[in-house]
Amino acid sequence: MNILSLFDGMSCGQIALNRAGIKYDAYYASEIDDKAIKVAKHNYPNTIHIGDVTKVNTSTLPKIDLLIGGSPCQSFSTAGNGKGFNGKSGLFWEYARILKEVKPTYFLLENVKMKKEWRDIISNELGVEPIEINSKLVSAQNRPRLYWTNIPNISQPTNTNTLMKNILETNADKKYALQPAKIDRILNSERGRGFFYDGTQDKCGTVIAFYHKQPTDGVYVDLGFKRRLTPIEYERLQTVPDNYTNIVADWQRYKMIGNGWTVDVIAHIFKSIP
């Protein structure tokens, strides 16, 4: 089996394939973030990186059995700029182009919940309606996402009842403590109050790529002292193996994890491949 992953990031697709027990011969990855590529190559040295998605020449590729990807969501997201296909999310059309050219047996596209008009355009282009799956079924984060695929018989994952208390590290380093001014900004922002886990909540909000900037609507911890999530906790919220990303700086880890997939959701979908 040959896999082609577009917008591969840190290669959550390969983690999911392995977790689903699917063997593959070659994994081709299109990605431009050099830090994400570094992490992918560190964990999967046989990854064949083929560069920028806009420059992918499919005539140089072998028969592709599975095409996967999560095109940029910034312009579709309610937290984004609302430009839709006129923004970075317009890179969806590269996914559509490559899908037509390689004609894989199966395909999977992931993206955020979005306006119906944008969703319908994608559905019409791909010829399938999306399935909505919330990562909260397999993780401690609330992360509803849309999945367009021709993999048959996709059901909802079994609820693992994973809670916030299950993903936290004990004795988190004090370097992750928030400064008083930052706490005040988070608590009193007009944009929205940040989420502080204090031991009483079961789930948190969606992990985001720009967490290193300590956004006012981010997820934080208030157990003894107010702090950021550690990179390992961020990985756990995406069901990524502990320290999968630990060869790059913390801020780069947060970015690629936030941009990545909830691995156990993808593995669940892959298990339906005949």
Report the strand count: 10
State the major sheet. Answer: 7 strands, mixed
Order of H and E elements:
EHEHEEHEHEEHHEEEHHH
Overall pLDDT confidence = 93
Radius of gyration: 19 Å
CATH level 4 superfamily of the largest domain:
Vaccinia Virus protein VP39
Which word captures the global form? globular
User: Low-confidence stretches at least 5 residues in length (pLDDT < 50)?
Assistant: none
Task: Going across the biggest sheet, name each strand in turn.
Answer: 3-2-1-4-5-7-6
Q: Into which percent range does the helicity of residues fall? A: 25-40%
Distance between the termini: 12 Å
How many distinct folded domains?
2
Q: What is the CATH domain class of the largest domain?
A: Alpha Beta
CATH architecture of the largest domain: 3-Layer(aba) Sandwich
Which features characterize this protein?
alpha/beta, Rossmann fold, DNA Methylase, Chain A, domain 2, 2 domains, three-stranded mixed beta sheet, 10 strands, globular
Structure write-up:
The chain is an alpha/beta fold and 274 residues long. Helices cover 28% and strands 16% of the residues. It is built from nine helices and ten strands. The strands form two sheets. Strands 3-2-1-4-5-7-6 form a seven-stranded mixed beta sheet, covered by helices on one side. It has a three-stranded mixed beta sheet with strand order 8-9-10, with no helix packed on it. Helix 1 (12-19) packs across helix 9. The chain starts with a strand and ends with a helix.
